[in-house]
């Protein structure tokens, strides 16, 4: 059955979508059947593949109006499908508050996907509200993109507390996949200081900080405007090389059965 | 009475907090009595002034447990006070859903501040949930920080729709203060393209795009780790010069009565 990885950080703009999109694409390039789930009402992971007005979206699957298979969309990469977000998802954050078993709705919706894929990668919105809590309840593991900046570091403790709370209340087997340093600029003091502090505190490898870090690379921010993941937009860029290396490091931790 | 400006953009990491903090500080430096309200549970605008565990916070004022005056904290700048966020604010997003007049709670809470200040600047979380809707219902005007990147541009239409909806439903006099381009890097094609497109569409000045844009400047991201706004951390930096110019441009639009 698939390993579901939630890409989570309530701090905005730290590279959640860029990581979810390009990690999913790199796993697919390594011939692992992968489903990218866009749980953010902003629908950035959806538009990253040039998907504009999907006939069905995740919201339809969440409220049982569409089967999962009907809502998933193939991409240019054979082994990658996308479960797109749409405008209705914005209402789900408030609607879920008054639903029974509100934390388990995504887990129920994704049950049909487990036998079909090797990996499920879930892109989350920048908050710790109902949508993100659903992702943490549905996932096997959490991947935390961390920008090497002061505000991003500040929010980490609250995020780890929330993961602990979810593990205790709704998902006892939730693991830490690891922390990925994003937009790293080794020339900047602040970036190096944050990296030293985080690797010092969490360690490298295992459930700590991935050996692979993602450099700041303008090609990564250009790729979405072309509706392509980085490895289809510019395979030779530092961004593409970094996300392929991240996928390799992840696969080395979870060898095929 | 004070002019209340909500700094809003559901896209994460576009410079909302950096703009709210440094615009408020620059207005105070121009001798306007200013209150900075931190409406984001991340409490970044609070820690930007080195405020760690405030005795009272915005949440206490929202639910009537503390008077506004008791919760506001002075800063090193004579004319700047901060109404800090705290951990309880995270619960407010869900709690407000079932309260009567849920959209007006912040407006009621800030009523006591109107005669005391010239400007109230509200930093918002990266979402269009209950907290941001409260800010849009309480404010006289909306300031939209816009990062010159593809995903940020994509979210603009949805944001402007939401502002329109709030104007129709809860706050008929809500104006657009303007769009501020942030983290501008004139060397990057994407940044120039986005700037041309946005200025072309919204115009410069008036309710459109501010003439002043904020360059990417590492000193801006270093300042919060020292608990100071940029003009106290490094007054000669390009970041400080840009935010002082932004304040000047704003004051020129609203001359003292
Ligand atoms: N390594 C990188 N180098 C350069 N630009 C990057 C990099 N990673 C992300 N970006 C750009 O930075 C911006 C923020 O990244 P992204 O949107 O992926 O973050 P996010 O955490 O998903 O944001 P949100 O909190 O709004 O969901 C985007 O415009 C993206 O293109
Ligand atoms: N002009 C700039 N130059 C360089 N760094 C900047 C600039 N503006 C903001 N930053 C940095 O970029 C990051 C994002 O900015 P900020 O936190 O202000 O955005 P935000 O929109 O408030 O984020 P969130 O959506 O999480 O509330 C921060 O680490 C900040 O220090
Ligand atoms: Mg995102
Ligand atoms: Mg902020």
Ligand set: adenosine-5'-triphosphate, magnesium ion
Low-confidence runs of chain A (pLDDT<50, min 5 residues)?
none
How would you describe the shape of chain A?
globular
What's the gyration radius of chain A in Å? 17 Å
Topology:
Two copies of one chain form a homodimer.
Chain A: E1 3-7, H1 16-29, E2 34-38, H2 44-47, H3 58-62, H4 68-71, E3 73-74, E4 80-83, H5 89-95, H6 105-110, E5 119-123, H7 130-138, E6 141-147, H8 150-154, H9 156-169, E7 175-182, H10 189-202, H11 218-222, H12 230-233, H13 238-253
Helix pairs in contact in A: 1-13
The structure holds adenosine-5'-triphosphate (2 copies) and magnesium ion (MG) (2 copies).
Explain what the structure shows.
Two copies of one chain form a homodimer. The first copy, chain A, has 257 residues and is α/β, with parallel strands linked by helices. In chain A, a hairpin with a 5-residue loop joins strand 3 (73-74) and strand 4. The first copy, chain A, is built from 13 helices and seven strands. Chain A has a seven-stranded mixed sheet with strand order 3-4-2-5-1-6-7, sandwiched between helices. The interface between A and B is large, with 37 and 37 residues. Bound molecules: adenosine-5'-triphosphate (2 copies) and magnesium ion (2 copies). One adenosine-5'-triphosphate sits between chains B (12-18, 40, 44, 126, 182-183, 214, 216-217, 220-221, 239) and A (11-13, 126, 149, 151).
